[in-house]
Amino acid sequence: MQPLLSLNGVNKQFGALTVSDNITFDLPKGQALGIIGPNGAGKSTLFNLIGGALPPSSGTVSFKGADVTQQPASVRCRAGIARSFQIPHPFVGMSVYENLLVASSFGGSGHRNPKEACREILDRTGLLHKANRPAGSLTLLERKRLELSRALATGPELLLLDEIAGGLTEAECHELVETIQGIHASGVSIIWIEHIVHALLAVVERLIVIDFGKIVAEGEPRAVMSDPFVQEIYMGISVDDQAA
Ligand SMILES: Nc1ncnc2c1ncn2[C@@H]1O[C@H](COP(=O)(O)OP(=O)(O)OP(=O)(O)O)[C@@H](O)[C@H]1O
Q: What's the ipTM?
């Protein structure tokens, strides 16, 4: 079956710095894929390349079989790629519901009834009771939920989540994981960059590890996490420490 997303030999250089180094992988439709790696490894840059915020220096990005490498983020969003950002920037003076309506009218959702669709999304993400509050009055968890809701309002087939669990308490993180599990169960494909590994492992079926812009490990999440090489680069646990 044709993959939903394919990256083929994707490179990105900022001057002399190579931030994405020959990144190649396919995402089958319906899969939840996790991406981990040390700070500065090139994870958010990879999202910029998939979402269209940045063009690659070379290589191709295909979505639903079409080459989207030269398409801007707005076109990719309408095609079905939505992204939540590490630091949410909602329209703070607008209500939560209005924020979703903007996203819904911008994206390619084709919701027959956008107002009802936005109401349903807020119900799914646990924000319905805040629908008429200004976005600027929300707590951190609620802002994260709004970020997720705005991405969903565009009607994505592929949802890119950039460190959405960062800064939350353990209980808040658990609640958010349940919401993301529900979104995945509804058929939305997900790529999730996250440092909170236990949250990630509760959702994803496959894990990719990036270091210095390269894919250095890939596969079933628990097998990848127990690889001594991954433990060394990601958690600083050396094979010698384990033997001691
Ligand atoms: N627009 C840019 N111009 C120059 N350098 C950049 C640019 N964007 C990112 N970088 C550099 O590319 C490298 C990778 O950054 P990136 O944000 O992709 O890493 P990351 O893995 O997401 O890190 P973190 O886990 O801290 O969010 C860093 O060294 C960063 O400083």
A: 0.94
